[in-house]
């Protein structure tokens, strides 16, 4: 049975999609069969891969009954990595989309029909604690919380942790914290160091792995590829995702 | 009659709350009476001012009938700047809050009761095109679109512009584009320069003002104040908000 991981943060622009994409690639290169699901109504994963929103059918069509789950899953150039994109969505329909994905059991049913073919399912979610994120947390085994090392992102962390507890206490007793992953880390800069110290000192589950702030991410975004796919030798940042994949697998195996 | 400005972006973490807060201060210092409304369920404005979510009553209490609009507005240390905070909101109730704020006419009614006391109303919104943002656009005269100068933020811009047109064509014919405001600009770095060139070359309404990427914002965030309130002489970044305020006023007067 596939393990389902929800990649989430209350704060926006902290690196959720970047981690979802690059972690999926790193897990796949370690031999795992991975399904990456784009739950963000803005289609973050598609945008990161520079595919316009007019392209593929996806979750939107499945939720509205116009396609079967297996028809919406697409292969990628990496053997073993499949993608369930957002699908064609008029941006005026975002409120309807959010209600459809949050409807009781809808997402769990879609992913249930696909789980047998994969070892891991990764959900990329939009910022916030609205309906898409709540739907994903209800249909997940693990929550990977992304924490940008800036004061504002740290302040909203306790709201998210409270929701994880509440979801576990109500609709999904199997939900566990995979860890708190620090992103955009700049240990040479005091504000970032201060946030790391607050994380280590004040929160359980802070991961060993971190994602440094690095120009290579903007370069990868402008080319529309994960960092591992950039030309030339593997960058130190892409290696970071290898060690993150190892840490994730270790935690899942201890599950 | 106060002019209502919705500060919005599809993408997260691009500087919406930072601009909302610092622009409100700059407009107020130019003699305007300003109401800053926090529509973000995470309470971004409160977080930026380092006030926990247990503190103040606000929009949540007004929408649920537990307080009158005028009771929820609070003064700040700056004469002429008032705040309508998010209010006390259990993060598990975010889906209900989003539906309540989006209910037909709800927000317009709350702001309608307050407008006579102000020259300007500024809405800070969460990332995305969900219910809080749609509610704000329906009850606004202007949309100020925040565009981080990174490839990912630019790709989602056309979805937002389509929504502005649709809102104008359906529920709010008076909605106008105030402008596209580039943030986190780093003209010494190629990806940022490339995005600026795409903005100037491909979009109408790009503002003269820009907000540079600068350490002072992280410093202000960790102290929980707008940049204009940091100790010492006014930073060049705080001055940028003065010139942004001038540009905003000029556009409004032409409107
Ligand atoms: N470690 C990093 N160092 C530098 N830039 C990064 C890093 N991670 C992500 N970025 C850049 O920061 C921006 C935001 O990243 P991303 O879109 O992954 O965040 P997100 O949390 O998914 O945002 P949203 O809330 O809009 O979904 C992108 O332009 C991306 O290229
Ligand atoms: N011009 C800037 N230069 C450097 N850092 C900035 C700048 N503007 C904002 N920041 C920092 O970037 C982070 C995100 O800013 P902010 O919270 O204002 O964005 P937002 O769009 O409101 O995010 P959200 O989508 O979560 O509401 C904060 O830590 C803030 O201090
Ligand atoms: Mg994203
Ligand atoms: Mg904000």
What does this protein look like?
Chain A has an 8-stranded mixed sheet with strand order 3-4-2-5-1-6-7-8, sandwiched between helices. The longest helix of chain A has 19 residues, at 236-254. The two termini of chain A are 14 Å apart. With 255 residues, the first copy, chain A, is of the alpha/beta class. Chain A has 12 helices and 8 strands. In chain A, strand 3 and strand 4 form a beta hairpin. Chain A is 44% helix and 16% strand. At the A-B interface, helix 2, helix 5, helix 8, helix 9 and helix 11 of A face helix 2, helix 5, helix 8, helix 9 and helix 11 of B. Bound molecules: adenosine-5'-triphosphate (2 copies) and magnesium ion (2 copies).
Q: Which labels suit this protein?
A:
12 helices, 255 residues, globular, binds magnesium ion, 8 strands, homodimer
Helix content range of chain A? 40-55%
Largest sheet of chain A: 8 strands, mixed
Number of distinct beta strands of chain A = 8
Structural class of chain A: alpha/beta
**Share of residues in strands of chain A:** 15-25%
Rounded mean pLDDT score of chain A: 95
The total of helices of chain A stands at 12
Largest interface: A-B, 47 and 47 residues
Spatial order of the strands in the main sheet of chain A? Answer: 3-4-2-5-1-6-7-8
Unreliable spans of chain A: none
* Rg of chain A, nearest Å: 17 Å
Gross morphology of chain A is globular
What oligomeric arrangement do these chains adopt? homodimer
Q: Which ligands does the model contain, each kind named once?
A: adenosine-5'-triphosphate, magnesium ion
Order of helices and strands of chain A: EHEHHHEEHHEHEHHEHEHH
Distance between the termini of chain A: 14 Å
